[in-house]
Amino acid sequence: MPIIQANGLNFYYEFHGPQNAPVLVLNNGIIMNAATSWAFQTAAFSKHYRLLQYDLRGQGQSDHPDGEYTMELHAADLAMLLDKFNIERAHIAGISYGGEVAQAFAIHYPDKLHALILADTVSEIHDDLAIIACSWIDALESGKHLAFFNATIPWNFSTRFIEENQALIEDAKTRYALLDFSAVIQLCKCFLQVDFSSRLSEIQSPTCVIVGELDNLKGINYAKILRAGIRHSELHVITGAGHASCWERAEEFNTIILGFLAKQKEIEM
């Protein structure tokens, strides 16, 4: 199992693709993991990029330390990982929670960033989203994985996707049972502190903002805030996709990102 130490913790990671290609980092959503959650992206992206998938602190096969997590701490973890791998700069992508980590990284480590990709993510939290996140914490504190499953699935996927992918949804129950609830609670509490909107103007890197048309959790209004706040940004709405747009409309998701990154390569040339 590939493990590297950074900031005093063990981090699980995977590299895919040519060693001499530009680096593209994928940051996981809150209950995603590096080993399985990018199944629809790994092959497509690693044809063109040196792809780094890793688990954040509190996720998957990385360490789950006690104490408070912050987005700034996640960003520092990633910065040190890049240093450990002798990567001076990288394209940074993140979906949902991973997108908030990516924003923190862009704000605090701009010199390590080429281009930024933010999918189904937010720079601030409105009252309704805070209530949803608190309901997730309540379910986690019950200690019942099915309670957490029931609280999250309708927000993570569109109604149509749930109806058409019952086997996948049922399989998710097994994965939920394996979650470290105390760590996920800390991740949720960290999310509730997100407040980047006033600093979005500091992000000078070219940025691709993606949102699922049917994302009822972190939807189009949040994406528009990102688009308005980041000067060099573009917005893509994926028709028919819910919050987990990288799963629900993987081909469109991948095409948008590869097209965006190809444009950056042309500009650099």
Task: Give a quick summary of the entry.
With 269 residues, the chain is an alpha/beta fold. Helices cover 45% and strands 17% of the residues.
Describe the protein in words.
This protein has 269 residues and is α/β, with parallel strands linked by helices. The chain has a single domain (3-124, 195-268), classed as Rossmann fold (3-Layer(aba) Sandwich). It has eleven helices and eight strands. It has an eight-stranded mixed β-sheet, with helices on both faces. A hairpin with a 2-residue loop joins β1 (3-6) and β2 (9-16). α4 runs antiparallel to α8 (181-191) and α5 (145-156) crosses α7 (166-177). The N and C termini lie far apart (38 Å).
Keywords:
269 residues; alpha/beta; Rossmann fold; eight-stranded mixed sheet; 11 helices; 45% helix
Q: In the CATH hierarchy, what is the architecture at level 2?
A: 3-Layer(aba) Sandwich
CATH class: Alpha Beta
Q: State the distance separating the first and last CA atoms.
A: 38 Å
β-strand percent reads: 15-25%
Q: How would you sum up the major sheet?
A: 8 strands, mixed
CATH topology: Rossmann fold
* Rg from Cα: 17 Å
Report low-confidence residues grouped into runs of 5 or more.
none
Q: Overall 3D geometry?
A: globular
* Neighbour order of strands in the largest sheet: 1-2-4-3-5-6-7-8
CATH homologous superfamily (4th level) name: Alpha/Beta hydrolase fold, catalytic domain
Quaternary structure: single chain
Return the average pLDDT rounded to an integer: 96
How many E strands? 8
Q: What is the number of helices?
A: 11
SSE class: alpha/beta
SSE sequence, one letter per element: EEEHEHEHEHHHHHEHEHH
Helix content: 40-55%
Question: How many distinct domains?
Answer: 1
